[in-house]
Amino acid sequence: MCYTEFMASTAIRIDLGDMADHALQHLATGEYESMDEVMQDAVRALDRERAESEEMFENLAFQEMLRQKVEEAFANPAPSLPIDQAFVEIRRRAADRRARAAQG
What highest taxon heads this organism's lineage (predicted)? Predict the structure, then answer.
């Protein structure tokens, strides 16, 4: 029997402690038909919260990397390039890449 079969067919006893009254209130509102549904929704909410936390951490890591890149750019003694010239250079490089790709 695999883990998912075990979990699908086995009752699990849990002690909610102080949260039991809160779970029962959700059940009493009629929003849920059973305590199973309350707990399933709670686990789904936990999964969503963890996924959002991971996404937020990844965003923070990206922001930190970006901040470091900006600091490096400001610290770079090379002269800056006006935006018009920068786009001319970007377009030239893109055209060069397309030409090389067309040649095979």
Answer: Bacteria
Would you tell me how many other CB atoms lie within 10 Å of the CB of residue 38?
19
List the end-to-end C-alpha distance of the chain, in Å, as a whole number.
Answer: 54
Tokens 């038909």 locate to 33
Any idea what DSSP says for residue 78? S
Give pTM, 2 decimals: 0.49
Tell me, letter by letter, the H, E, C secondary structure of 14-66: CCCCCHHHHHHHHHHCCCCCCHHHHHHHHHHHHHHHHHHHHHHHHHHHHHHHH
Where do we find the tokens 């059940």? 27
The pLDDT > 70 percentage for the chain reads: 91
User: Domain-by-domain residue ranges, the chain?
Assistant: 3-103
C-alpha separations of 3 from 16, 24, 49, 53 in Å: 24, 29, 24, 27
